[in-house]
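Supplementary Text 2. Reproducibility record for the structural model of the 88-residue chain.

All settings were left at their defaults, and a single model was retained for analysis rather than an ensemble. We include the record here because the model underlies the residue-level annotations in Supplementary Table 4.
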Amino acid sequence: MKLKIYTGAEVRELRRKLHLNQSEFWAPFQTTQSGGSRYESGREIPDPVQVLLNIAFGTDAKAAAIFDELRAFGNPKNKAKAAQGEAK
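Retained model, structure tokens:
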């Protein structure tokens, strides 16, 4: 599955549209205000945070697909089934 890669500018705009300060916005992502500030200023946003951003701001279908992929990853039997589904 292809995740949207959020830039710092995109995340800053999302935060502003939600009328949240950095502490309020970044807390649910287990990121400090200073960490969020660095991301918004252009530092690369780590993959785990990118996944959480996709879950939070993507479509319900995208969030469900992410969860399905994570569940399959944690269960080798499901991983094989998921791989077969992608091949179709």
